[in-house]
Amino acid sequence: MIELRVVDRSFGQVLSALHCACFDDGWGPNSMDEVLRSPGVYAILAADGEMPAGMALGRLAADEAELLTVCVAEDYRRQGLGEALVRAVASVVPRARALHLEVAADNRGALKLYRLLGFREIGRRKDYYRRSGNSPVDALTMMIEPKKIAPPIP
Ligand SMILES: CC(C)(COP(=O)(O)OP(=O)(O)OC[C@H]1O[C@@H](n2cnc3c(N)ncnc32)[C@H](O)[C@@H]1OP(=O)(O)O)[C@@H](O)C(=O)NCCC(=O)NCCS
Question: Fewer C-beta within 10 Å: the chain N or C terminus?
Fold first, then answer.
């Protein structure tokens, strides 16, 4: 069974390995540790027994939160884990006014997931990302009230 839990900085290497497996420009152990040390940052790890399956990072600053990153290892995709991770990030900050995120306009899978959850598009940053080969891609900014997607406390 896959379990999601909040983890601390001691899981930095595991989180970094997952991130690097999922993104071309994934955060190595040092970058990950730096992010985890930043004020208000928290991490959720999804594990299938001992096997890391997915992770997400959130950040709370005053009354606004941000989904910094979310990723699921290839073998575990399309089983609802991405959705569960985003909901878990929201559930840590149920009283925040907003949960923001940024997504590449060509990341169709992630965009579909966020739209299904109810995130709405609030802005576009032109040519914000560079793909390999240097082609520019816009970033879309989206938001939702976290309490709308946080799972109920049992
Ligand atoms: C985006 C990502 C986190 C989704 O994780 P996941 O566990 O596969 O997502 P879920 O199973 O919860 O998907 C829920 C729904 O979102 C949509 N969705 C998710 N990935 C999709 C894809 N690649 N293509 C089309 N729709 C997709 C589907 O509607 C899916 O429901 P369905 O499987 O019943 O059709 C995963 O593909 C990933 O890690 N990608 C690489 C990293 C990344 O791009 N992260 C987001 C950065 S903003």
Answer: C
Report yes or no on 154 lying in a domain: no
Contact 22/73 with Cβ under 8 angstroms?
A: yes
pTM of the entire predicted model = 0.97
User: What is the identity of the amino acid at 121?
Assistant: E
Ranges under pLDDT 70 in the chain: 152-154
Identify the residue whose C-alpha is closest to ligand 1 atom 44. 110
Task: Quote the tokens at residue 98.
Answer: 């907003």
**Is there a domain that residue 80 lies in?**
yes
Give the number of domains in the chain. 1
Cα-to-centroid distance, 75 and ligand 1 (Å): 12
Which domain covers residue 11, as residue numbers? Answer: 2-148
The candidate with the shortest Cα–Cα distance to 6, out of 71, 91, 81, is 91
What's 103's domain CATH number? Answer: 3.40.630.30
pLDDT tens, residue by residue, 111-127: 999 999 999 999 999 99
Distance in Å, CA 86 to ligand 1 centroid: 11
